[in-house]
Amino acid sequence: MNEYLSVLRGLMPHSYLQKGDQASIIGGAINYVKELEQKLHFLGGHKHVNNQKFEAGSSSSLPFDELFTFPQYTTSSDSSIMVSSENHELAMADIEVTMVETHARLKIRSKRRPKQLLKVVSGLQSLRLTILHLNVNTVDQIVLYSLSLKVEDDCKLTSVDEIATAVNQMLGRIQQEAVLL
């Protein structure tokens, strides 16, 4: 078992290895495989977008749809109305959070806005969520942020729903600020 864990540790970037214990190595490996899976899906989706031209007004899905399995917040692709899949609040973006112990994977798909990434990074830090890895993909005016986060000991958010709600509220503030400019 120790030999396999050693090999696994050697295959992963250091940002996925916070501790050397077995649970952390396995948790980091799960997050790393999910990241690789996401990149694979993105490359397949990017190839699909390059091979097809979408007609304006067609009922095609949004970019990166295949990357969202069970989002806590979703936007309607049929209209400008956005609703939460959990508690029917206004959704600012498609938001999906998964967790393994103290590590969280956050996916955000939204319209691109000026200084949005800077404000998201700053907001996550203020929530005591440390960014271990950040990936940004764009197609036209749609942006996908994929983040690996460490939930710090003094973080008040303890569940995927709490993190998703906090991120949705943060994106709401960012959108309001963009409108005021």
Automatic annotation (TrEMBL):
It comes from the Eukaryota. Keywords: DNA-binding, Nucleus, Transcription, Transcription regulation. GO terms for molecular function: DNA-binding transcription factor activity, RNA polymerase II-specific; protein dimerization activity; RNA polymerase II cis-regulatory region sequence-specific DNA binding. This is Basic helix-loop-helix (BHLH) DNA-binding superfamily protein. Residues 1-36 form the BHLH domain. It is found in: Nucleus. It holds the Pfam family HLH. The keyword Ion transport does not apply. It comes from Actinidia rufa. PROSITE patterns: BHLH. The keyword Transcription applies. GO terms for cellular component: nucleus.
